[in-house]
Amino acid sequence: MPTPVAAIDIRRDLVGLLPKLRRFAITLTGDLTEADELVQSICQRGIAKFHLWNGVGKLESWLYTMARNQWIDEARRHKMRSTAKGNALEQGELASGLHPNPVEAGEAHRLVTSLPEGLASVFLLVDVEGHNYKQAADILGIPLSALTSRLSSARLYLAAQGHSRSSRRF
After folding, report:
1. Taking Cα atoms as reference points, which of 47, 48, 38, 43 lies closest to residue 68?
2. For every residue of the chain, which 3-state class applies, written as one string?
């Protein structure tokens, strides 16, 4: 039985989106293993529910929203939220492919994962992935004003962390 064209396209597109989905999942879970499980589940659900996507907007936004909703549902079911935000880096997660200097990439990853809950995902979507404010607010299911407030808080937090870690060079 031949595979429908739409299924082939979604699978191809999912492969290209895996790194972005994984980074987003890490901001939600704070754990590499849980993030990988979430991404796998989202890929399976995305393929199974592709017929429900209305084709409006970006596919990745639809998948991010699906990931966020699934994570919230799982957290409610298990009545837990991960508080070990920094262990993704400890498990060997470096963004060396995205940054020419793995040491700086590791430090950047450590700073982003150290953001208080709710701020890392906002920062990742807007400042790393390049979504506009409206898209990011829609993905996260929050009002635009809440997104701008959280983004401002995330940027201020990171600026303070960067300032306290930097040494003066002359």
Report:
1. 38
2. CCCCHHHHHHHHHHHHHHHHHHHHHHHHHCCHHHHHHHHHHHHHHHHHCHHHCCCCCCHHHHHHHHHHHHHHHHHHHHCCCCCCCCHHHHCCCCCCCCCCCHHHHHHHHHHHHCCCCCHHHHHHHHHHCCCCHHHHHHHHCCCHHHHHHHHHHHHHHHHHHHHHHCCCCC
pLDDT digits (tens, 9 = 90+) for 108-156: 777 777 888 789 999 989 988 899 999 999 999 899 999 999 999 999 9
